[in-house]
Design brief:
The protein is α/β, with parallel strands linked by helices and 240 residues long. Helices cover 52% and strands 16% of the residues. Bound molecules: uridine-5'-diphosphate.
């Protein structure tokens, strides 16, 4: 079932269902885009019509953020649970190790994708890492990157370029890449590489992940102003 949060399409799925749907994409062969919607992304899509259009056409948009789940429920839509992008990536990596899916890690600062892939090999023994590449490149380097990924016969492409760069990069290149599943994973490699800490479970349970991030990375404060703006926009939208 689909719902809309401030006009942005979000699919009301559980984690198990999302994994099932994504694994079916792998069987299907055609390129598919997986997006993970949080409050920051929904706010970005308000002014960025290109991003909004990409989310509209994506093959699945999971409710990544606690804010998105709250907003959907506030509007009366039954979103069963939060499907955090980081957790979704972990579930897909576990399935990759079990089923032999080939995973490519693209994005992050120099060495981060490599370290995230090393972590994946420890956490999910037997996983096939098809390749790794950092996420800082010039337009001239693009064709080479696409070719490098293409030849690796990838099943799942994880792209960590941040929102909305990763979604736009994928939308522009996914046909040519011809990979069954591509997903924008934001800061997930940084967490897997041990560069950035994830909020402890009790904070995530209390929907306080944003507070943890703010304390740990105060430089995100300006970006995070999107969160109160999101709450006010949702409250305001219901009145009308
Ligand atoms: N990044 C990148 N190339 C760029 C811009 C960003 O590889 O041109 C990486 C950056 O190093 C970081 C990730 O993209 O690893 C974005 O992480 P962030 O936590 O900002 O993700 P978001 O909150 O946008 O999902």
């Amino acid at each position: 079932m689909q719902t809309r949060v401030l006009g942005v399409r979000v699919d009301a799925v559980t984690m198990d269902k999302a994994v099932e749907i994504i694994e079916a994409f792998i069987g299907g062969g055609e390129p598919h885009l997986v997006a993970t919607a949080n409050a920051e992304m929904v706010m970005a899509a308000q002014n960025d019509l290109q991003l909004a259009g990409i989310l509209e056409k994506a093959d699945i948009v999971v409710p990544d953020g606690a804010g998105v789940v709250w907003a959907a429920r506030y509007q009366g839509c039954e979103v069963p649970e939060r499907v955090a992008g980081y957790d979704l990536v972990q579930r897909l990596l576990a399935r990759s190790a079990a089923c032999g899916y080939r995973v490519y890690f693209f994005g992050g600062a120099d060495g981060i994708a490599q370290r995230a892939a090393e972590t994946a090999k420890v956490w999910y023994p037997g996983i096939t890492v098809a390749g790794v590449r950092h996420g800082f490149f010039t337009p001239a380097e693009m064709p080479g990157i696409i070719e490098e990924i293409r030849v690796k016969r990838v099943d799942i492409l994880l792209v960590a370029l941040g929102v909305p760069k990763q979604e736009k990069w994928l939308a522009a290149n996914m046909r040519e890449l011809d990979i069954p599943v591509s997903i924008g994973v934001g800061g997930s490699f940084d967490v897997m590489a041990g560069n950035v800490k994830r909020a402890p479970l009790w904070m995530r349970r209390l929907s306080l992940e944003w507070l943890f991030r703010l304390l740990l990375q105060p430089q995100r404060a300006i970006r995070m102003l999107a969160l109160p703006r999101f709450v006010f926009a949702v409250l305001g939208a219901k009145k009308h």
